């Protein structure tokens, strides 16, 4: 089953790096206090896996994870 990225919002420092790396998957919340995962079909996350994992590895708070 395809995995879905998830952001632990309490740990997000709103640095916007993930949104810069992959703006198809990550965006800032309306209040700008944290990043959010854009709801997409699981196949889309699979197709963007390399960019998502780059964002995960680049996140200074290490708060982007795969959720089953
Ligand atoms: S890279 Fe990490 S800390 Fe920065 S906005 Fe994205 S989730 Fe938040």
Automatic annotation (TrEMBL):
It comes from the Bacteria. It holds the Pfam family Fer4_13. Residues 3-31 form the 4Fe-4S ferredoxin-type domain. GO terms for molecular function: iron-sulfur cluster binding; metal ion binding. SUPFAM superfamilies: 4Fe-4S ferredoxins (SSF54862). Keywords: Electron transport, Iron, Iron-sulfur, Metal-binding, Transport. Gene3D superfamilies: 3.30.70.20. This is 4Fe-4S ferredoxin-type domain-containing protein. It comes from Candidatus Wirthbacteria bacterium CG2_30_54_11.
């Amino acid at each position: 089953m395809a995995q879905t990225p998830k952001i632990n919002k309490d740990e997000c420092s709103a640095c916007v790096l993930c949104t810069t790396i992959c703006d198809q998957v990550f965006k800032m919340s309306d209040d700008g206090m944290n990043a959010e995962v854009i709801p997409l079909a699981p196949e889309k996350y699979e197709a963007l896996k390399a960019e998502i994992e780059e964002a995960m590895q680049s996140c200074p708070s290490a708060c982007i994870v795969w959720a089953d």
